[in-house]
Amino acid sequence: MFGLAKSRRLRGALAGTVGVGLVLGAAACSSSSDSSDDDTASAASIDCAPYKTFGDLKGKTVSVYTGIVTPEDKAYKDSYKPFEDCTGVTIKYEGDKSFETQILVRAKAGNPPDLAIVPQPGLLKQLVATGKAVAAPAEVSANVDKFWGADWKAYGTVDGKFYAAPSGASVKSLVWYSPSEFKDAGYTVPTTLDELKTLTDKMVADKKKPWCAGIASGEATGWPLTDWMEDFMLRLSGPETYDKWVNHDIPFNGPDSTAALDAVGAYLKNPAYVNGGLGDVKSIATTTFQEAGLPILDGTCSLHRMASFYAANFPAGTKVAEDGDVFAFYLPGKDATSKPVLGGGEFNLAFADRPEVKAFQTYLSTDTWANIKAQASQGWISANKGLDTSKVSNPIDKLSADLLQNPSTTFRFDGSDQMPAAVGSNAIFKQMTNWITGQDTKTTVDNVEKAWPAK
Amino acid sequence: MLTADTNAGKIGLMIAAILLFAAVVGIILFIATLFRGRLADRFTAYIYLAPTLIMLAVGLVYPGVRTIYQSFFNAAGDAFIGLGNYETIFTDSEQLTVLRNTVIWVVLTPFVATAIGMLYAILVDKTKFESFAKALVFLPMAISFVGASIIWSFVYAYRPDQANVKQIGLLNQVVVWLGGTPQQWLLTDWLNTFLLIVVLIWIQAGFAMTVLSAAIKAIPEDIIEAARLDGVGPWGMFRFVTLPAIRPAVVVVLTTIAIGTLKVFDIVRTMTGGQFNTSVIANEFYSQSFRSDNQGLGAALAVLLFILVIPIVVYNIRQLKQSEAL
């Protein structure tokens, strides 16, 4: 009797064992890619001379964790190849769409990658605050001094200590348009904010809805509006006030901030100006940012303010060039002489100081890597001054790179990316969304100010 | 050491995990057989319970206590602020909207889903096409919340009222056919919460229908016959025979759906991301903890959710026990 019961129990236990095993097996199958299994046929053609300084790193591994996933990850892996082939190191690249939340979890749990590609200075600060990040080695610091402006180095610096070298960059102060429409209707690219307004009114007189916009982006809905506001803040109040505003040395509900948001409202909350091909003002809230610029191709919208990376959103076969189907012009400054540029970028933050990690960090901060990466990818540039813009083939990348390297340009990093997370990735998005669906400017800036965490 | 770098490594890891698990179970079984005598049964029971208790302690009790502890701290988790986070939840206008929405969800979803499920179960009971009709309502149960949300996002989709622009959303197309202008359904406060609730009802009605239909079929035939002989009409039959007989099942369905509704997260997150005043506690908890990096407030919201679920769970268990006793 007992024996029977026991064997039944055993059988049950075994069934459970197999079940759990299957689940574990399935979990183990989740992806983790290894760039070393790509073909190595090109190894012979690489000139290994520039990599001699990194020494022999055979058998060593560096793990990279990032939010950059397919298809953009391929160019990253390809750009690591020469370094891997010449030093013998293996770079383990792991792309994860929920990088921004997971990297914090991993850092806090003591399980960080060797290197993280961090897209926001605000997140960088949070990561440094976990105490797990390590400062950049002297070689990286020297390279950044050599190849980047002081402003870029400052974004990778926390409390006076330099941590992360810049990686890629994107230009946000761009307005997409149809070159053929401009040619046919006799429009010219504006060079001041006043001209932009005149151009818009001219389009309205031609019975057009000039602007199209969309801010829907899942839980980050609202972010394109923060870019609009930052662009106008930078133009109307100047870079110094902009910095104070971002660092909260002046309140978010101050006069400068209110004026900037009202200036955005003059475009986006004006029913005569928006939302070309997409609906009324409120439709901005429900249109995804990916779809928002597409009406330019249909001729139902003429102007769309969006970053350089938007080029990838046009359907395959669309010619993105000055003489093509769509192109972008620089969102002009208040006058023709000032050239403020709003942009974004990524930073390489290390969590380990093993020699191979240091070497890899150093490699990523060189002009060698910037040029290899730019040639391997579509729609990628860097603010690295060693980047040879004549070799950038894509017209929109060339425009962006030229803007970034132009000495008269005043570059400023995306403000909401630098604000504390409670504001920069939550309150400001929500309030901007409420603003576009009817909330007034004062309530909006007051609510964002209220959400600012006490220091 | 085994790593999950290669396929062979992964399979090796899997086999190692299975062997490890089998070994642990084997050791427990072995220890259990060592006890003899009067107290053997009791010891055996404790030993079998031990792994569960240990896992509950590590996986449930510890995180639970830690979350409650964290809820008394500030955003960074380094300064004690007492009930500050709870004060925020009950005074901040945005958090009050979250509470309001949660109440609407919890009050509406279980009752409407159960009512629809029950009505449907009674209507199709003993008809010729019963199994087919039941399958139709049960199908949404097989769809994940995120999948259902995407389907319904298309139902509510909006395209402007312009020449050459065609509606792609079912609801707006119906409105246009009836001569109306398309609406942005998910933007309007209050209405949007109800439209999101429809999605959960669509999923849960099938569950209610299945359980209640089984309960209805279990009503003894002689009771129904006796009632018929007494000349009870259809309403009386439902009110005095069916409903009392299936009451335990109704309670289980109601409470199960209510608990699920309190935890609703996927639908809100997928369809509106909590924008336009549609956020609920579970969604707000996530966005405070992980987007805003406000650990304290996030923990407080989680604790609140926990407290709200407790009475329903207790009621559910008591009802289950009562119905088992019957």
Overall mean confidence score, pLDDT of chain A? 85
Under CATH, the homologous superfamily of the largest domain in chain B reads MetI-like
Structural class of chain A: alpha/beta
Number of helices of chain B: 13
- Measured by DSSP, the beta-strand proportion of chain A falls in 5-15%
Mean pLDDT of chain B: 88
Assembly state of the chains shown: heterodimer
Question: What is the rounded distance between the termini of chain B?
Answer: 56 Å
At CATH level 3, the topology of the largest domain in chain B is MetI-like fold
Biggest sheet layout of chain B: none
Instruction: Name the helix and strand elements of chain A from N-terminus to C-terminus, one letter apiece.
Output: HEHEHEHHHEEEEHHHHHHEEEHHHEHH
User: How much strand of chain B?
Assistant: under 5%
Descriptive overview:
The complex is a heterodimer of chains A (455) and B (326). Chain A is α/β, with parallel strands linked by helices and 455 residues long. Chain A folds into 2 domains: 39-171 and 343-413, 3-Layer(aba) Sandwich (D-Maltodextrin-Binding Protein, domain 2); 174-341 and 415-451, Periplasmic binding protein-like II (D-Maltodextrin-Binding Protein, domain 2, 3-Layer(aba) Sandwich), CATH 3.40.190.10. Helices cover 44% and strands 12% of the residues of chain A. Chain A is built from 17 helices and 11 strands. Chain A has helices spanning 2-28, 73-87, 99-108, 121-129, 138-147, 150-155, 179-185, 193-205, 223-246, 255-268, 283-286, 295-298, 355-364, 367-376, 395-405, 421-436, 441-451, and strands at 61-66, 90-95, 115-118, 157-158, 161-162, 165-171, 174-177, 304-305, 327-330, 339-350, 409-413. In chain A, the strands form 3 sheets. In chain A, strands 1, 2, 3, 6, 10 and 11 form a 6-stranded mixed beta sheet that branches. In chain A, a hairpin with a 2-residue loop joins strand 4 and strand 5. With 326 residues, chain B is mainly α. Chain B has 2 domains: 7-70; 84-325, MetI-like fold. Helix content of chain B is 74%, strand content 0%. Chain B is built from 13 helices and no strands. The radius of gyration of chain B is 26 Å and the shape is globular. The N and C termini of chain B lie far apart (56 Å). The relative contact order of chain B is 0.11. The model of chain B has no long low-confidence stretch (mean pLDDT 88). Classes of the chains: A alpha/beta (455), B mainly alpha (326). At the A-B interface, helix 1, helix 11 and helix 16 of A face helix 1 and helix 12 of B. Chain A: This is Alpha-glucoside ABC transporter substrate-binding protein. Chain A: Belongs to the bacterial solute-binding protein 1 family. Chain A: Keywords: Transport. Chain A: It comes from Winogradskya consettensis. Chain A: InterPro entries: Bact_solute-bd_prot1 (IPR050490).
